[in-house]
Amino acid sequence: MANDNRFRGHPPRLAGRPPRVRQAGRVPKAQNGNAAKGSGDLGQGRRQAKDLDSLLKKCLRKPDLAYEKISDKGGIRIVTRFIENLAPVCKLIEDNFEVKKKEDFTAGLGTEKFGYQGIHLDVALRSDDPQAASFGHCFLEVQLRTLSQHLWCEMAHELNYKPEFEIPKALDRRVNCLSALIETCDREFSLVNKEIMQLPDAEPLTVLAVLERQFYKISARHYDRELSVDVIRNLMPLYSKEVGWFESYFEDFYTREQMKINRMHLLYAETPNRSIFLYQPEALMIFDLLQKDPFILKDEWIHHFPERELEWLAVAWGAPLR
């Protein structure tokens, strides 16, 4: 007779999925999202509380695994664009949560193996977190990987997990060998990005990266990158300093105006009569110039963009032009 102890500790099946796990997953997803945004890399975040049936089936597949021992009843996946963003996002998670377990699968491959790459962390809320009393006992798995690594994971899972029959080892090896190409892609994407940012005409991209880091601290919205570059290129001449100066300048600007910017984003979130530039990274530059010299800004602005858009931004900032 099968050992039903594997199902020990599971909630009623009628729940569909453990409700506490589902609710708990919302807390760290929001906090992890803020961590990723704070690093300057939006990435893609997904929260998942697994269906109860799938968890019990996992117990059946793994005879030595009891339900109460499953650590990934809920999970969060953060996918970054570039491999260099994994480390800072990982550090932010470690700084904001109690990490029960950490596995760096990329480091574990050593120098001669191919296969799954990424970082997994089992996390819980810190004891001083306001919601720890409700969810402090819940553990969630956070998966960190790049877009390239995520592509390999999805395809490898599709090709390898065939329950009807066993995949020959030679085919499995070929799938794992493809991970080496993915590693090369990650490295080349990063190098190409750095070389692009060093090109003579790439200054607007450099400034956008600076503004983006502050923008993602307050918003997870996708924005029009081409429009951002166009605005920055036209407004940069209004600053007399070199591009390297922008990093600390806009960090300080956001720190000073953080409460005002956050309040404005909340206030206008559902308002139709607002500027399309409000939820763009370059809005920080526009607000700064509205404080410095709104009339010089207006003179330059009307040569490239609708005047009404600037007027709406000025009203939102509390410095109307008229």
Structure report:
It is a single chain. The protein has 322 residues and is an alpha+beta fold. It has two domains: 4-172, 2-Layer Sandwich (Beta Polymerase, domain 2); 200-317, no CATH class. The protein is 52% helix and 10% strand. The protein has 13 helices and five strands. A five-stranded mixed β-sheet has the order 1-2-5-4-3.
Counted by DSSP, the helix tally is 13
Cα shape: elongated
Largest sheet: 5 strands, mixed
Query: Which homologous superfamily in CATH is the superfamily of the largest domain?
Result: Beta Polymerase, domain 2
The helix/strand class is: alpha+beta
Give me the CATH architecture of the largest domain, please.
2-Layer Sandwich
CATH fold name of the largest domain: Beta Polymerase, domain 2
In total, the number of strands is: 5
Report helical residue fraction: 40-55%
What is the chains' assembly state?
single chain
Flag low-confidence runs: 10-25
- First-to-last CA distance: 82 Å
- One letter per element, helices H and strands E, the order comes to HEHEHEHEHEHHHHHHHH
Mean pLDDT, all residues: 80
Task: Write out the strand line-up for the largest beta sheet, numbering strands in chain order.
Answer: 1-2-5-4-3
Q: Give the C-alpha Rg.
A: 24 Å
- The count of domains is 2
Give the structure's gist in a few sentences.
With 322 residues, the protein is α+β, with helices and mostly antiparallel strands. The chain is 52% helix and 10% strand. It folds into two domains: 4-172, 2-Layer Sandwich (Beta Polymerase, domain 2); 200-317, no CATH class.
